[in-house]
Specification:
The protein is mainly α. The chain contains 16 helices and seven strands. The protein has helices at residues 3-39, 45-49, 51-59, 63-75, 88-95, 101-118, 159-162, 165-168, 171-185, 197-203, 208-220, 251-264, 267-279, 286-298, 301-312, 323-332; strands spanning 41-44, 122-123, 135-136, 153-156, 192-194, 224-232, 239-245. A three-stranded antiparallel sheet has the order 5-7-6.
Length: 333
């Protein structure tokens, strides 16, 4: 065997080993991804768009019922009969951990009855003691056992529960967050989605005020970001707005920062600064509120007031709704 043949043989062996290692790593990554997906919830799009489910719950203010349903979906493991293996104690711990057993039992029974009779999403044993015997039903009228959706669904990340956002957000805010997840899923090669709020309201059978209220709440909590588009909105002849869903974060860290703000500043000034921060969609951001408090000490009150009035007239997606532009405005007044 000549030198060239030896070199070629060694190269092929090395290449084969390298590809085997890469394939092994890819397989591990795939397995990890599959495992993480199983921890997330797959919510059928029909739940959001059909008047019978999401809209009806929202208008009835059945948030606890909605959370209970999501909890059942989260604990569903693919049983062919739709059975969810959760006990009364599990539901109590999630929905009403601080209630006495009697009150919690009454509340949980009422919620399960609503899911069963009003929304026809489950079946359960109404005379249960420890095991409610809950079975999820299909969203179709056939009332067959529930199955994992394989098309037209959104993925609700497990971090929603880890950080407790499903309870922190209002029902409208939570519902709008799910709408955002659904819309971004429909655009597989982009991180932004774009649709007129009027069309969004029509698609999900909600009022325009509900959509706007939900979007603003998500912006204030820094769970959503808004950008100006080059296209023009036919309803108001202004640039369309593009939205980007941001990563969920731990509210516990934010609470610690709020404690520092409350310790270092007086209550009236903080309340005023929070109102100002809301104009730039940062009312829940302690860093922004503290920066505004510092500006309130540095500049006259009338200048601060005038500057924020100017900012309030800017578009929801304008880059000028920020502390950077606020400072420029103050210095030019």
């Amino acid at each position: 065997m000549n030198r060239y043949s030896i070199f070629l043989t060694l190269f092929l062996i090395s290449f084969t080993c390298l590809r085997a290692e890469e394939f092994s790593n890819e397989k591990k990554l795939f397995i990890q991804t599959e495992q993480s997906i199983k921890k997330d919830i797959l919510l059928p799009e029909k739940f959001l768009t059909n008047k019978t489910f999401g809209k009806r719950m929202l208008y009835s203010d059945d948030k606890d019922v909605f959370l209970a349903y999501l909890f059942l979906l989260k604990n569903f493991t693919g049983d062919v009969n739709g059975e969810v293996k959760v006990k009364y104690a599990d539901i109590k711990e999630y929905l009403c951990p601080d209630m006495t057993s009697k009150k919690a039992y009454d509340k949980i029974t009422k919620i399960l009855n609503i899911l069963y009779k009003k929304y026809e999403l489950i079946e359960f044993d109404p005379h249960f003691k420890d095991n409610p015997g809950i079975k999820l039903l299909s969203l179709k009228e056939d009332h067959l056992p529930y199955k994992y959706p394989n098309i037209d669904y959104l993925v609700i990340p497990e971090t929603l529960w880890i950080f407790g956002w499903e309870k922190r957000l209002s029902f409208t805010g939570l519902f709008t967050y799910f709408i955002n997840l659904m819309e971004i899923k429909l655009i597989p090669f982009d991180t932004h989605w774009e649709i007129d709020p009027d069309m969004l309201a029509l698609k999900y059978n909600l009022s325009l005020s509900q959509i706007n209220e939900g979007l603003e709440e998500l912006l204030q909590y820094n769970l959503l970001e808004a950008f100006s588009s080059k296209e023009i909105n036919i309803f108001n002849n202004k640039p369309k707005i593009k939205y980007k869903v941001l990563v969920l974060y731990s509210w516990e860290i934010t609470e610690t920062q709020w404690k520092n703000v409350n310790t270092n500043y007086n209550k009236k000034d903080i309340e005023k600064a929070v109102k100002y921060a809301a104009i730039i969609y940062k009312k829940y951001d302690p860093d922004t509120v503290e920066e505004i408090l510092k500006l309130m000490k540095k500049f006259p009150a009338n200048k601060i007031r005038k500057a924020f009035k100017i900012l309030s007239e800017k578009s929801i997606s304008s880059e000028e709704r920020s502390l950077v532009y606020l400072l420029k405005i103050i210095k030019n007044i």
